[in-house]
Each structure stands twice: as C-alpha cells, then as structure tokens.
Amino acid sequence: MSKQELVVLGQDESGCCPTLLAAPLDEEQAVELAKVFKALGDPVRLRLLSMIASREGGEICVCDLTPAFDLSQPTISHHLKLLRQAGLIDCERRGTWVYYWLLPGTVDKLAGVLTRPGQPAAPEGSP
C-alpha cells in the first residue's frame, strides 16, 4: 500500500477544480482530485464517511463506528486516517475517545466537480 500523503482538495490559491463536465482538468487538478477519489475508493471508507456524515448532531465517537465493522480497531483507525488526510473528515480527542465529523467544504467541492454546469442537482432516485 502506498504511504503517500493525501492533499486536501482546494487548499491552494487557485481555488477548486473546474467542473469535470465543463472543461478538461489540467494534470495538477487531476492528480489532486484522484487522491480524494482514492480515499473514497474503498467500501469501508465510504461506509465510515456515510456514518459520520449522517450522524445526528454532526459528530460520532470512534467507539460507535468500530462495532459496525468486522475489522480490528487499528484497521478502522487507518481508514479514518486516510479520510482525514483527504480532507473529508476531521477529529478531536476527548479523554480516551476520538470524535469525528464531516468537513462539508471538501464534500461540496467534490460535488461541484461532478455537477454539470447550469444543471440543478437531480432529485434522489432519478437516473
């Protein structure tokens, strides 16, 4: 497995990538965007992100995440670390536990890259 560090999307002065469907990405934009997609390219990480994002109150303790998977705690921590390095989530230690929450800015930028310009978001369940 690669040990490269993931860079948070949209943290440079030039702003976020243009929408993928409006103009071709340049090489640098494609590399940065691919790092975020790579972090999302695992079913466990997608489930973790979904569990964090959908949690009432906006945050969740790692103690509530771990039992949902048939994986060891260090493996869950590794997946959470990759989501964090991609700028999708953040966390804070409170006593013995770590609490995680979604970083909506990165998710919104990612959604913007995948949205057709001038098109409203499709309603859920539509093709």
UniProtKB/TrEMBL annotation:
Molecular function terms from GO: DNA binding; DNA-binding transcription factor activity
UniProt keyword list: DNA-binding, Transcription, Transcription regulation
SMART domains, sorted: HTH_ARSR
UniProt cross-references to InterPro entries, sorted A to Z: ArsR-like_HTH (IPR011991), ArsR_HTH (IPR018334), HTH_ArsR_DNA-bd_dom (IPR001845), HTH_MetalResp_TranReg (IPR051081), WH-like_DNA-bd_sf (IPR036388), WH_DNA-bd_sf (IPR036390)
Highest taxon in the source lineage: Bacteria
Short name of one Pfam family: HTH_5
Entry-linked PROSITE patterns: HTH_ARSR_1 (PS00846), HTH_ARSR_2 (PS50987)
Keyword Transmembrane helix listed: no
Domain HTH arsR-type: 25-122
Protein name from the UniProt record: Helix-turn-helix transcriptional regulator
Species of provenance: Streptomyces parvus
Source lineage: Bacteria, Bacillati, Actinomycetota, Actinomycetes, Kitasatosporales
